């Protein structure tokens, strides 16, 4: 995973699945009042309307978001031949409002994600209009390389030279013709392990969803030359347009296909996350209890929960691309397995693990390692699974058991699992109880969210909210070093700051739910 260093004193952020990038501004209390008087005055027009259940966003903000989307969609380069005019959708707005009110800094809810696209933004401090985030999403275009038709054989490559481009591709996805957004004020919102006292949270939902794997965001050609027949030849400012398009729509029924670029979290994870994470009412006051203010609970998992049919794809990105949790019953699935020992990327992950002998029909965890291109794949029958052969060059992967290791409160990532290229698998570790009471001189915690590999794994896990002081299982992922590690007080533990460490690496830590 390619991680981006965060400068926490700055306070504007964008969220995407598996990776994160931020557009930052410095706090300014005077300018903040301009926004807060619009969205936080409980005697004001917006709050009165909110209490009556009317709107999650002002008319002016709604129109500015919609107008900017259509303006940006109309001027893409290379030009689009099938870009559809975007309209506001009240039902999408309501679903965005429902999620914004959770104050959870992640995509959701899981039950809705298969049928909608979603972009998120948050900031506090200096006033920023909602269009600031929309423009920031679009500005990812500088790192995106459009896949021309001759490059799509049959699937289009996804080329992004920066940390993320999927905000941009969702904004300009040709068939995503409806949008609904909501804004909420979140007190003490947890943003990547930092507590923002008053975060202005923007959620935008799109339908039909974009970011389908293997597809270009739009067709290249003369504007409006490839509009769907339902538009009747209508064109407005380079966008496919039909009379009456400005009316509001209700979203279509959820689509079954799930080959999106950004993989979604499971319902199991969603339920657990919502039950453990604290949410904040937009009208609630800022707490004064230091213990509550510095409580952080994280349920982000490194293991990705998958079904028996999920295949490994080249486009998989982020921390959840090498450790998977398989369900029971995959022996009875009809999903294909291609190869033996080395498996082709279109193979079912879970059935490949059964074929190799890593798992049985009860399911469990499996580690995946990408092995590059192989010239051919051999068929075989093993452990009740018949694999098929393929005599054509393709990318491959291997499977292995997820090792488990018990450690002490003082064990560090530097000792147990140093960073390597290409990335290697670290064992799942079990932390003992009472690591909060360990000597901080021998069990240091350095950083916040991203930690120095000189840190104690178990005390870091408590600081990050991954486990309580009772201990438990955690996953760690070594990553390349950071120039700066930020100090903070979380969950009863003070972490240290560190600048320009000589040669030290870093790591992230994940829950095992």
UniProtKB/TrEMBL annotation:
Region described as Disordered: 246-294
Keywords: Disulfide bond, Repeat, Secreted, Signal
One Pfam family hit: CAP
Signal sequence, renumbered to the chain: none
Compartmental location: Secreted
GO cellular component terms, A-Z: extracellular region
Entries under SUPFAM superfamilies matching the protein: LCCL domain, PR-1-like
One Gene Ontology term from the biological process aspect of the record: hematopoietic stem cell homeostasis
Ribonucleoprotein found in the keyword field: no
Compositionally biased intervals (Polar residues): 269-288
Record domain LCCL: where: 302-397, 403-495
The protein, known as: Cysteine rich secretory protein LCCL domain containing 1
Provenance organism: Crocodylus porosus
Gene behind the chain: CRISPLD1
């Amino acid at each position: 995973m390619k991680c981006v260093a965060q400068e926490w004193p700055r306070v504007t952020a964008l969220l995407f699945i598996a990776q994160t990038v931020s557009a930052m501004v410095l706090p300014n209390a005077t300018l903040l009042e301009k926004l807060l008087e619009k969205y936080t005055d409980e005697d004001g027009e917006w709050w009165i309307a909110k209490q009556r259940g009317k709107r999650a966003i002002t008319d002016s903000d709604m129109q500015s978001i919609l107008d900017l989307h259509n303006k940006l969609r109309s001027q893409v380069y290379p030009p689009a031949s099938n870009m559809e005019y975007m309209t506001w959708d009240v039902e999408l707005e309501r679903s965005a409002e429902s999620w914004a009110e959770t104050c959870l800094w992640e995509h959701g809810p899981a039950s809705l994600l298969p049928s909608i696209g979603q972009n998120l933004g948050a900031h506090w401090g200096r006033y920023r209009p909602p269009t600031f985030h929309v423009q920031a999403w679009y500005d990812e275009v500088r790192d995106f390389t459009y896949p021309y038709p001759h490059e799509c054989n049959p699937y289009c490559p996804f080329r992004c030279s920066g940390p993320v481009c999927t905000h941009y591709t969702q904004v300009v996805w040709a068939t995503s013709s409806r949008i609904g957004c909501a804004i909420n004020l979140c007190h003490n919102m947890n943003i990547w392990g930092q507590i923002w006292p008053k975060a202005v949270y923007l959620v935008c939902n799109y339908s039909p969803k974009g970011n389908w794997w293997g597809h270009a965001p739009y067709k290249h050609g003369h504007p409006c030359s490839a509009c769907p027949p339902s538009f009747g030849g209508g064109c407005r400012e380079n966008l496919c347009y039909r009379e009456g398009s400005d009316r509001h729509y209700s979203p279509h029924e959820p689509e079954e296909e799930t080959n999106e670029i950004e993989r979604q979290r499971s319902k199991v994870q969603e339920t657990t996350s919502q039950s453990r994470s604290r949410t904040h009412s937009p009208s609630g006051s800022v707490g004064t209890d230091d213990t509550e203010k510095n409580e952080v609970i994280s349920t982000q998992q490194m293991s990705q929960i998958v079904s028996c049919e999920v295949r490994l794809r080249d486009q998989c990105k982020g921390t959840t691309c090498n450790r998977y949790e398989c369900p029971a019953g995959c022996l009875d699935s009809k999903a294909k397995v291609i190869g033996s020992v080395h498996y082709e990327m279109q193979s079912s992950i879970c059935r490949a693990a059964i074929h190799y002998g890593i798992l049985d029909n009860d399911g469990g965890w499996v580690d995946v390692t990408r092995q590059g291109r192989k010239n051919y794949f051999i068929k075989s029958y093993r452990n009740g699974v018949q694999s098929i052969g393929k005599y054509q060059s393709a990318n491959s992967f291997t499977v292995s058991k997820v090792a488990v290791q018990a450690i002490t409160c003082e064990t560090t990532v530097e000792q147990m699992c140093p960073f390597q290229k290409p990335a290697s698998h670290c064992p799942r570790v079990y932390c003992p109880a009472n690591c909060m009471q360990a000597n901080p001189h021998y069990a240091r915690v350095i950083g916040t969210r991203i930690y120095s590999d000189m840190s104690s794994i178990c005390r870091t896990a408590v600081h990050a909210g991954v486990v309580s002081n009772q201990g438990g299982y955690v996953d760690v992922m070594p990553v390349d070093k950071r120039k700066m590690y930020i100090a903070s007080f979380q969950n009863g533990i003070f972490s240290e700051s560190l600048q320009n460490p000589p040669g030290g690496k870093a790591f992230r830590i994940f829950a095992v739910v």
